[in-house]
Specification:
Helix content: 40-55%
Structural class: alpha/beta
CATH topology of the largest domain: Rossmann fold
Radius of gyration: 22 Å
Number of helices: 15
Oligomer: single chain
CATH superfamily of the largest domain: P-loop containing nucleotide triphosphate hydrolases
Strand order of the largest sheet: 8-9-7-10-6-11-12-13
Length: 387
């Protein structure tokens, strides 16, 4: 069952979004009534507070509930999503804040809250399934312009498979991240809003930072304000990448084109390193430096996959030339196409827009053969003990 605290005129509209198969929705006109309903049902684990409820009253209710019944999740609706409101709500213990008329985001928020409650109580709720032990996949290229973000976005969309699996795409290019633009996702909540939970990040806190993008696909977006990138410590990245795999089947991390403490934190947490290059001398040289750096830092070879983007480009280099530089197997050859920037400009991954396109098929084949088909491995951080 779910308690919905909202005027009766909107209860019928919201009930389909907050309910779940096998679960009823009961409405309460006031927070006092919602409190009585909670007291009468110790098994209740979700309260949705509508936009008509006063913000201060809602936050007071959530803060008290956090200590009295920490397994109960609170999802808050507001007419307008404002940064100040999100910060206040997070501090009060509200799990998610969604826009009043965004019923899709409301349904996703309720589902995530139920999943978290299942983890807290150890009792799976309807529709939540078992606790996940997801894999972290970091996509990296030491040279900009290779198509790294495009690969990360399309790989994440392919793995999500329209909701068949749950995937979180993390934009770790904190200064110039483009994941939000590629998915046309509004950056209302970003990683910088997690600073207040540094040192004690949990699934509820991580969930409050996410943006729902597609069925099965959520994103942790990069900051948008100048200077915010410098405020995000690598320790926050490590904490988030410890928690997110317990919430998702796959966590795909898009990185900047340079080694940093943040990138190394992602590499440490990863079960799979996807290293991207293109058939030109500067990109291949940087890939060789990257491979040598990963060897120096004692990362395992068996978790690496090299992907050659724009593999059909006629630029005077043969495949033998490329192999001599790389000295490793190339696991995917992604052709070049004008349809790729078109899909980026449309804000729809090409694997969803044109699933039978040669680029889509190359990415899908790589995901099937080298991500989905391979058994889970130990995260890289257990290998690299001396950094």
């Amino acid at each position: 069952m779910t308690i919905l605290c909202d005027p009766a005129t909107r209860a019928g509209q919201l009930s389909p979004a907050v309910g779940v198969v096998g679960s009823n929705v009961i409405t309460a006109a006031t927070l006092a009534e919602a409190d009585r309903l909670l007291a009468a049902d110790p098994a209740e684990l979700l309260v949705v507070i509508g936009a008509a409820v006063d913000l201060d009253e809602a936050l007071t209710f959530a803060e008290a509930l956090r200590f009295e019944r920490p397994a109960v999740g609170v999802v808050l609706q507001r007419e307008v999503l404002e940064i100040g409101t999100l910060t206040q709500a997070l501090r009060a213990g509200v799990r998610e804040v969604v826009a009043r008329d965004d019923l899709s985001s409301l349904a996703d928020a309720c589902a995530r809250s139920r999943a978290l409650s299942a983890q807290v109580t150890g009792i799976p709720q309807p529709g939540t399934g078992e606790r996940r032990h997801g894999q972290v996949i970091t996509v990296f290229s030491a040279k900009g312009g290779c198509g790294k973000t495009t690969l990360a976005v399309n790989l994440a969309a392919m793995l999500a498979a329209g909701g068949e699996r749950s995937v979180c795409l993390v934009d770790l290019d904190l200064a110039f991240g483009d994941v939000g633009i590629c998915l046309r996702a509004e950056p209302v909540r970003t990683i910088v809003h997690g600073l207040g939970m540094l040192g004690h990040v949990d699934a509820a806190g991580a969930s409050s930072l996410l943006t729902a993008c597609r069925p099965g696909l959520s994103a942790l977006l990069a900051p948008v304000e100048p200077g915010d990138a410098e405020r995000v410590p690598a320790s926050l990245v490590s904490e988030l990448l410890d928690v997110l795999p317990t919430m998702f089947d796959y966590v795909v991390v898009d990185t900047p084109s340079a080694f940093s403490e943040h990138v190394l934190a992602a590499m440490d947490a990863s079960h799979h390193h996807v290293l991207l290059t293109t058939p030109d001398v500067p990109a291949l040289k940087n890939l060789r430096v990257t491979l040598d750096m990963l060897d120096l830092l004692s990362y395992a070879h068996d978790i690496r996959s090299i992907v050659l983007n724009r593999s059909d480009a006629k630029v005077g280099l043969t495949m033998d030339d490329i192999q001599r530089v790389v000295r490793s197997d190339i696991r995917a050859h992604v052709p070049s196409s004008r349809d790729v920037p078109i899909s980026v400009n449309k804000g729809n991954p090409i694997v969803l827009d044109l699933p039978r396109h040669p680029v889509s098929e190359a990415i899908s084949r790589f995901a099937r053969e080298h991500v989905l088909a391979e058994p889970a491995v130990v995260a890289a951080k257990s290998k690299r003990w001396f950094r």
